[in-house]
Amino acid sequence: MRKLLAFLFVCAAGIGLAMPQQTIDEQRPAARDVEITIENIAGSVTVVGWDREELQITGTLGEGTKELDVDGDRNSWDIEVELHSNRRNIEGSNLEIRMPRGGRLTIETVSADIDVSDFDGTVELESVSGKILVQGNPSEVELATVSGSIRLVSEGAVGSGEFQSVSGKITLQADLEDHGRFEFETVSGNIDLRIPSKISARFDISSFSGRITNDFGEVAVKTSPYLPSEELTFSVGGGGARVTVKTVSGNVRLIEE
């Protein structure tokens, strides 16, 4: 999150001259396992995976934007929306990107929403207040927000994942790999895990003041006669994947799909 905080200081700079929106339409060569890093403060970032060995960047840059900086080679590209240093009011920039579906993707935003789909590789996404949505069949995920919601919907089994939010809601709708490790953590955000009945996993869940509900039968227990804290530890299907869930005041729901 350090880079995100640095973005906020840029947004607090002085007022500059308004500039019209700029249209983007660029292409670059990209290996099938290409690493893509994207930085955008406000607006949106949409990424769709495809089978071409090519990176395609389209969209618009909002007022207050200096330029879109694209740097790298076919193995690694850095894409950054650069701002004028004397600009206070920043209009959102909307990026639409197509990239090889098996690559590695890293995105950092402040208030820009992030939408990733048809992607099979690894994703690391961070936002302060933007929403994060991932669809497809990612192998590994790291998703983090402060107040934005996080949602992962996968048609297959996710290999591993880390999900963190302060007040945003976290929703997972996916199967989990038997040997995967999954961590979910919030302060006040609710956590919904929509998982198939055939799943093989061990769950360790704790909440200080939120409620824990479980469609798989086991009931959460109080950990203190004086505090509202609850814990739930159980295994299903042999206990393959390891799932850890921690929240302070958010509610946790395990929903059998």
Task: Outline the structure in words.
The structure is a single chain. The chain has 257 residues and is mainly beta. The chain has two domains: 1-104, no CATH class; 149-257, no CATH class. The chain has one helix and 23 strands. The protein has one helix at residues 2-11, and strands at 22-29, 35-40, 43-50, 54-61, 65-73, 76-83, 93-100, 104-109, 113-119, 122-127, 132-136, 140-145, 150-158, 160-165, 170-176, 181-186, 191-195, 201-207, 212-214, 221-222, 230-236, 241-247, 252-256. Strands 5-6-2-8-10-12-14-16-22-18-21-20 form a twelve-stranded mixed β-sheet, with helices on one face. A hairpin with a 7-residue loop joins β20 (221-222) and β21 (230-236).
Draw up the topology in text:
Layout: H1 2-11, E1 22-29, E2 35-40, E3 43-50, E4 54-61, E5 65-73, E6 76-83, E7 93-100, E8 104-109, E9 113-119, E10 122-127, E11 132-136, E12 140-145, E13 150-158, E14 160-165, E15 170-176, E16 181-186, E17 191-195, E18 201-207, E19 212-214, E20 221-222, E21 230-236, E22 241-247, E23 252-256
Parallel strand pairs: 2-6, 2-8, 3-7, 3-9, 8-10, 9-11, 10-12, 11-13, 12-14, 13-15, 14-16, 15-17, 16-22, 17-23, 18-22, 19-23
Antiparallel strand pairs: 1-4, 4-7, 5-6, 18-21, 20-21
